[in-house]
Amino acid sequence: MLGICIALASCAADSLPTGPGSSSFRTLSTTNLTTSQEGDIPILITVPHGGDQTPADVDERMISYSGLVKSRELYLRDIAVGVATRLENVHGITPYVVIGESHRKYIDYNRDDTIAVTGGPPENEAYEDTDAETYYDEYHDQIDAFVSDIDSTYGGGLLIDLHGTTSVSDKILRGTRNGDAIWGLLSGYTVSSISASEEYAGQTAVMAHDGDLGTQWKSFGTSEWIEFDLGSSVSIGSVEIAIPDGATRTYDFEIEVWNGSSWVVAYDGTNTQSTSDFEIYEFSSPITGSKVRVSCHGSSYSNANYIKEIRIQELGWDPIVGPNSVWGELADAGYSLEPTNSEYGTGAETTLIGGFTVDHHGSENGGLDAFQMEIGLDYRDTQAERDDLIVDLADAIDTYHDNY
Fold it and tell me: Is the CA virtual torsion 365, 368, 369, 373 positive or negative?
């Protein structure tokens, strides 16, 4: 890897972790104030706001506007390196790591430098001085390179964007852009063919799986069905369905899976009348089958049936909030999480949805499945708290890696 190799300790004044697994630190490569480490597992840890360095010939961001934040997030670099070190020393695996070393008052790596500030100047939220572009691009180019490497080597992976929060000091906040940043997990299986008992007024069955929430399948009756042929037998753990007026009406339906000899009922009930976007229907246990059928019985309003879009998934949200996920392991370790692991999907993430990094490098935009993790100050304010967090987060990542 190109770049001058330096010890990470020379980059910042934060004290380094001293807990289990931190007896030695990797020598990382730093180029244009981006510190990075190539890994050997499909997990990438990014830290955009932990740096305290002054980039050469770059002026501070001085123009005030709504949403301007210039403070660095303390100890995030140390936590990231501590986690990476424990993963290597204790678990024998090494994650990819990218750390922005510039202080946030000069460059905000977690902002888009191509979008103008409304009513600006400044021209963008990432930096004011154009000399900062070299440093900003180095950070995101390195992430892009690692994402490409992970994709080509492993066929996909997980990006964990580490942040700190003081506004909610006693919690760890999750942000997946309400599922958009983990589109790879949620988009589900490819469907080879679709059929239906009835199609009304050009609102055909294929419109229920065309990737467009602006189209829909429609039928009338209390015994209608739509069927999705996957082309081969696969493990199915959940189905997501978007109903156009699902926030105001209750629809009665069953979800069945063809196991090769019979239809197995995986879900029998109604929507929750809480959203017109995707709602998740998780099976009590995965079912192996080649077809999925949704049998529809009308709504609380009429005998009309609608499906805007359906996604048939192997795992769904389980790698994010399930018992063997990073968030599941943190919950078991006693951390207070927001939203809780029982809250996910459209609208669940209210305090934090996730910023530019998980959006730009997330799987909806061709990157990795990604989430932003905002760590409250109560979990990182003292060395002892950081040591505990490093152990718990590293062990949680190892459990995730073992299971997914």
Answer: negative
pLDDT over threshold 50, residue 58? yes
The percent helix, strand, coil of the chain (3-state, each to 5) is 25, 30, 45
Domains of the chain, first to last: 4-185+318-403 (3.40.630.40), 189-313 (2.60.120.260)
Q: With contact defined as beta carbons under 8 Å apart, do 271 and 279 qualify?
A: yes
Other beta carbons within 10 angstroms of residue 303's beta carbon come to 14
Beta strands 217-220; 304-307: pairing state: antiparallel
Give the integer Cα–Cα distance in Å for 143 and 162. 14
> Which tens digit of pLDDT belongs to each residue from 244-283?
998 999 999 999 999 999 999 999 999 998 888 899 999 9
**Which residue intervals of 266-404 are DSSP H helices?**
318-321, 326-332, 356-360, 383-403
CA dist., res. 399 & res. 404, Å (int): 9
Query: Is omega for the bond preceding 323 within 30 degrees of 0, making it cis?
Result: no
Please name which of 132, 120, 29 lies closest in space to residue 68, comparing C-alpha atoms. 120
The phi, psi pair for 370, rounded to 5°, reads -145, 145
**Tokens 């499906």 map to which residue?**
307
Dihedral pair phi/psi, residue 90, rounded to 5°: -100, -40
**How far is 100 from 170, CA to CA, in rounded Å?**
25
In the 8-state DSSP scheme, what is residue 168? T
